[in-house]
Design goal:
about 300 residues; Immunoglobulin-like; 1 helix
């Protein structure tokens, strides 16, 4: 068996095993299906600064003009070898160029090499891989973080904020007079109550939204450092209590008017609980929270009509 035939057999085996490493990451390079002819390339991908990639999230793609004709990733267990299948509907004659995507830096490179397509040929050997080298390395990818808040305060910076791949971005929250931070949502998920929030090692677009509420709806329990929030204030049909620190003891609540008359009472079952206030008349009320061994906390709120 010749060296070339052995390499082809090994190539087919490893290419089949490596198919799970073919990933769809930015940029969206997708070769067409059912091309009539193909050729194979065994290669290494040069790194900017020396050496070869073993990162299975990196990509090498083959192109004819702007059409992707094949895509593959380095295989770490094969010392970073890339097994790239290139397709065509012509048995010979097309010129194949190459691009790379470096995932850690979020950068795209035009590669220096080009080859002529010849069906059923093999370029590079397992023990003598073809080398892809960098011709032009474009700047790192930019991602957009959409930053906004409600009208009771501001977030800085705000709007569409561009962030370089892999860098950090800090946002600061500034309530207007008589307001305080009520909630911070990142990518649609509440992450708590902060004065600022930092995205670390940004590798994708994000969004952040800050809700500011009346400061009298916020109280701090200094003993256990828990922040209690009531919302909305004024309330209509449902009062939300957020920020209860669950311990082995129970936290009970009372809702009274200014004279001390009790309208509602119960036990808080979760760190965030909703209380039906439909049957409470309009007016000013006091929510009192009691936990064994802790100082009671009282927070005023208004029931609207």
């Amino acid at each position: 068996m010749t060296k070339t035939t052995l390499s082809k057999l090994l190539l087919l085996l490893l290419f089949g095993l490596s198919s799970k490493f073919l990933i769809a990451t930015p940029p969206d390079w997708i070769p067409p299906e059912n091309l009539q002819f193909n050729m194979q390339i065994v290669a290494f991908l040069e790194l900017d600064g020396g050496g070869y990639s073993t990162n299975e999230n990196d990509l090498v793609a083959a192109f004819v003009d702007d059409q992707c004709r094949g895509i593959a990733s380095p295989i770490a267990s094969a010392e970073g070898r890339i097994f790239l299948s290139v397709g065509s509907d012509m048995a010979t004659g097309e010129t194949i160029t190459f691009k790379a995507y470096y995932a850690d830096q979020g950068q795209i490179a035009d590669l220096s090499e080009s080859v002529s397509f010849v069906s059923e040929t093999l370029i590079g050997e397992y023990n003598d891989p073809f080398i892809f080298t960098i011709d032009v390395l474009y700047p790192p990818a930019l991602y957009t973080i959409e930053a906004a808040s409600n009208e009771n305060g501001t977030i800085s910076p705000s709007g569409s904020v561009s962030v370089v791949h892999g860098s950090n971005q800090l946002f600061t929250f500034m309530p207007h007079p008589d307001f305080a931070v009520f909630d911070v949502q990142v990518d649609g998920i509440s992450v708590g109550i902060f004065d600022q929030y930092e995205f670390v090692n940004v590798t994708a677009p994000h969004n952040i939204f800050v809700t500011f509420a009346f400061p009298e709806s916020v109280d701090v329990v200094k003993d256990n450092k828990t922040q209690i929030v009531l919302f909305p204030n004024p309330v209509t049909n449902q009062l939300t209590i957020r920020g209860i620190q669950k311990t082995t003891s129970q936290t009970s609540y009372l809702i009274t008017d200014a004279s001390g008359k009790i309208f509602l009472s119960g036990i808080l079952q979760a760190t965030e609980q909703h209380i039906n206030t439909t049957h409470i008349p309009a007016g000013i009320f006091v929510l009192t929270l009691r936990e064994d061994g802790q100082k009671p906390v009282s927070i005023n709120f208004e029931k609207a009509y």
